[in-house]
Design goal:
- The protein is of the alpha+beta class.
- Helices cover 32% and strands 26% of the residues.
- It has 2 domains: 105 residues, OB fold (Dihydrolipoamide Acetyltransferase, E2P) (Beta Barrel); 261 residues, BirA Bifunctional Protein, domain 2.
- It is elongated.
């Protein structure tokens, strides 16, 4: 028997066989099924195999499991002996026979013949549940998905999470676009990029750090009124429960909308996501009780920092902000300037905010791409969504004044030259695009961190195959 044939015929998935069982069993027809042996038992003249193929049906949501019964008296004796002697848990097999119900009431296939579909050289572990070695779990994630129903279901929800977001945009007339992943100059966020070399053009390029922010806004200049992209972004930074170096993000830009309209848009989107994917508005996340159906209050950035640390982000100088970090005994792993110091003060405060809530009135020096507030030009028309002590997306009225944008980029470039390698670069080509005229617009970004929080899991556990160091041989 060939242990690795090109194909093994089957008439139905295991879920379909379970769904149509009564009709198929009543006809007495001979059918063929296929699946992986998850367990085998029995001795003497009868053996049982629990098969699994991962299938489901829209009507029953079947589990893709089915029992195959091997009896020496009902099949070729040599085939029965071969199954008894040569099959193992983990093997993929094809089976042919008729459907019946056992005395215990279990829907089963009475096997008349079988063949190997793919021989497993390493048996499926007997004791995977309760495994404490996190690295082994993630390194052999395929086994975790196979043997852990909760993990398998989580990735089904992850797919539905992004499908819901995509449909939300399509239903509102947005055009889905694809923008470059390799860039001459990474922009759209404060982050350290990955650098690689483009051999054909003999130049260094960067993996993007945003989901095409500056490219999508060029598309507004080009005349598209509503655009969005769901894609991978890359940031060469630290790793934590909330942060990864490569992850999926959605960004969108809508002409003739602004921060206030954007707040309603994002609130509607988040409520749609949790209802469609989880069927509820209430969650417990990292010890916080979060109700997406409740009213979302606004948190004033400068007010809460002034009340907590005694410094005003709009009026303090760099030395005063850094001293506040020291007085607050806040541990930092970087050289501080005004922007970084104030950001660290805020991060202490946000940990206690359950949300959902909107963070507003952020200083201009913390957001180089947002429009200045009409009421106070020292702040920007930007909000961040606060959930369970962290930031779960942001949106703002887009800066479309090319002269203001040039000045902010220049300030960021000065910060880079002073040693802040996460500050943004002076992108003259983007400024030139703005000089042709970009309409007033609202833009937003949401990363897969939101999904990991809704699952109440660390970010790396919510990815199928997170990056790990190579295993020592």
């Amino acid at each position: 028997m060939d242990p690795y044939p090109s194909t093994v015929g089957r008439d139905y998935t295991l879920a379909e066989a379970a769904e149509r069982f009564d009709a198929l069993a009543g006809d007495g027809a001979t059918i063929s099924l296929a699946g992986r042996i998850m367990a085998r038992r029995g001795q003497g003249g009868i053996m049982f195999a629990d098969l699994y193929d991962g299938s489901s049906t829209l009507t029953t949501g079947g589990t893709g499991k089915f029992q195959a019964v091997f009896q020496k008296e009902s099949m070729d004796e040599a085939l029965f002996s071969l199954f008894a002697d040569a099959s193992d848990t983990g093997d993929w097999i094809g089976v042919t026979g008729t459907l019946f119900t056992t005395k215990r009431g279990e829907k089963s296939l009475q096997v008349s013949s079988w063949r190997m579909a793919s021989k497993s050289l390493i048996p499926i572990p007997d004791q995977w549940y309760g495994l404490k070695d996190e690295e082994k779990i993630l390194r052999e994630r395929y086994l975790d998905i196979l043997l852990n129903t909760d993990v398998r279901d989580m990735f089904v929800r992850r797919a539905k999470f992004w499908a819901t977001i995509r449909q939300f945009y399509l239903d509102r007339g947005f055009l889905e676009v694809e923008t470059p992943v390799l860039e001459n100059s990474p922009g759209g966020a404060d982050a350290r990029p990955f650098i690689t070399h483009h051999n054909a053009l003999d130049m260094d390029v960067y993996l993007r750090i945003s989901c095409g922010e500056l490219w999508q806004k060029r598309l507004l200049v080009a005349g598209y009124p509503k655009v969005f992209e769901i894609g991978r972004i890359f940031r060469n930074e630290g790793q934590s429960r909330e942060h990864l170096q490569d992850y999926t993000q959605v960004e969108s830009y809508e002409a003739f909308n602004d921060m206030r309209g954007g707040q309603r848009f994002m609130q509607d989107m988040y409520r749609t996501i949790v209802k469609e994917v989880y069927g509820t508005y209430t969650f417990e996340i990292n010890g916080h009780q979060v109700d997406f159906a409740a009213q979302w209050p606004e948190v004033d950035f400068c007010t809460v920092i002034r009340e907590r640390f005694g410094v005003d982000p709009l009026n303090c100088n760099e030395e005063e902000a850094i001293q506040a970090v020291r007085d607050g005994d806040i541990q930092v792993g970087e050289e501080l300037n005004l922007a970084r110091a104030v950001d660290h003060l805020w991060k202490v405060i946000r940990k206690g905010i359950s949300g959902p809530a909107f963070l507003v009135n952020v200083p201009v020096y913390l957001e180089p791409l947002a429009k200045r507030s009409a009421g106070d030009p020292r702040t920007v028309e930007r909000f961040q969504i606060l959930i369970a002590g962290s930031e779960m997306g942001k949106g703002f009225s887009e800066l479309n004044d090319p002269q203001d944008q040039y000045g902010r980029f220049a300030e960021q470039q000065a910060m880079r030259e002073a040693g802040d390698d996460e500050a943004q670069r002076l992108d003259l080509e983007y400024v030139r695009a703005l000089e042709y005229g970009m309409p007033p617009a609202f833009g937003l970004g949401i990363s897969e961190r939101l999904f990991s929080f809704l699952e109440n899991r660390p970010a790396h556990e919510a990815q199928m195959f997170p990056l790990l160091r190579p295993k020592e041989q």
